[in-house]
Amino acid sequence: GPMYCACWGDVNQDGHLDLYVGVRTGDNGYTGSNHLYMNNGDGTFTDQAIAMDVDAEGDPTLVSAFYDFDRDGDEDLYLGTDKGSGGFWKNRLYQNNGGTFTEITTQANAQAHIDCMGIAVGDVNFDGFYDLYLTNIMHGNKLLVHDGVGAYVDQTVPAGVGSYHVGWGTLFADFDNDTELDIYLCNMQGPNRLYRGSQTWPLVDEGPSANVDAAADVFCVAEGDVDGDGDIDLLVGNTNGRVHLYINNSPDLKSNNYARFNVVGNNGDLNQFAVGTCVDIVHGEKSQVRQVRSGTNYKTTSEYTLHFGLGDAAVIDSARVIYPGNTEIRHLSNIPANHEWTLYPTARLGDKDNNGRIDVWELREAIVARTGPGNPIEPGVEIYDMDGDFDIDNDDLAIMGLGTRTPTPKNIGHQHGP
């Protein structure tokens, strides 16, 4: 069938990435099903979409996204359905029950009868739950804000983000590092838009002043720090023209800080980018969350590095790294701003050469890197920070010297919810 979208996620938390493929059916004479290819761990996949009741047979699925809707540690599935404006088709939300799915579209108020062609996932109101921005044709896009209990509330009108053009790819990102998630969206007929994030609504479209509003047949967008200067750049593509790379030169960046995290998977897993991992941070009175995702946008995926704008905060007070399925939670503290950090699972701490043990040379290297309390480490030696407090002191060396990778109690635990 006509396959339009794909996204990756570890559905059953076995360390192997599974693949969901959406098939645009229904209005074109094809009545097939979507596919959920479960990774067998041996280089082969088995389609389990029908068995797991996520086939959405007959739906014109155009976009899809794995994300943790209920913050229970596993990846739920959202499907954006094209040609839904007439009311026959709808978007769908499937709750992951730890390896099986239940459709909760109606009770979660996630149906959105629209011509959905883009999905952005992010927490716009700092409550620890993921909100959705969905593009549409001229009837208007949708901003669905999680109520913190288990359902979405349509906040499109008060937020002023309907746009009312033919929208395609979209994403949330903090382009000015002020902690607020901005919304970028591609329009096929009309200017692209950049809504600057704020807790005061309606939001303002700053696309023209930011020079990212070029009107063309624009369909795809991806984000990442292309030039490595600590801010988010944009890559935008259209159907009959050149790809555009927008390098971020926002004047607000001079006064705002950031932190970036590369999350590493466990040794032996096929999920080496730790897709599905959530990172929650707290700085001052504010909390933020990001999730490592793959393939959530229209025919694109953004970088796997998690980017946080911190405003004037020079330090992240605390962070939780929640691996898929709540299989592991690392607790970190006192993380300096304006660096890109690598976050390792506990099983890989101290083991720089990844041979399954902590060798004498690695202990010696940690001794050389020792900083002491109150003197934070620099990027490159995070693997020796056994207790996650961003210094390397006698506590870390003692854990390494005992030949154990189990950090102190403050560094690991299990917890549900944001």
Write structural notes for this entry.
The radius of gyration is 22 Å and the shape is globular. Helices cover 6% and strands 33% of the residues. The protein has helices spanning 156-159, 207-210, 360-368, 394-401; strands spanning 3-9, 18-23, 35-39, 45-47, 61-67, 76-81, 92-96, 101-103, 119-122, 131-134, 142-146, 152-154, 167-173, 182-187, 193-196, 204-205, 218-224, 233-238, 244-246, 257-263, 278-283, 286-291, 306-311, 315-322, 329-336, 340-343, 412-413. The strands form seven sheets. It has a five-stranded antiparallel β-sheet, with no helix packed on it. By secondary structure, it is mainly beta.
Largest sheet, described in full? 5 strands, antiparallel
Global structural class: mainly beta
The total tally of domains equals: 2
Which CATH class of the largest domain is shown? Answer: Mainly Beta
CATH topology of the largest domain: Methylamine Dehydrogenase, Chain H
Could you report the average pLDDT, rounded to the nearest whole number? 91
What spatial order of strands do you see in the largest sheet? 22-21-24-25-27
- Given the C-alpha coordinates, what overall shape results? globular
Radius of gyration: 22 Å
Layout: helices, strands, pairs:
Blueprint: E1 3-9, E2 18-23, E3 35-39, E4 45-47, E5 61-67, E6 76-81, E7 92-96, E8 101-103, E9 119-122, E10 131-134, E11 142-146, E12 152-154, H1 156-159, E13 167-173, E14 182-187, E15 193-196, E16 204-205, H2 207-210, E17 218-224, E18 233-238, E19 244-246, E20 257-263, E21 278-283, E22 286-291, E23 306-311, E24 315-322, E25 329-336, E26 340-343, H3 360-368, H4 394-401, E27 412-413
Parallel strand pairs: 20-26
Antiparallel strand pairs: 1-2, 2-3, 3-4, 5-6, 6-7, 7-8, 9-10, 10-11, 11-12, 13-14, 14-15, 15-16, 17-18, 18-19, 20-23, 21-22, 21-24, 24-25, 25-27
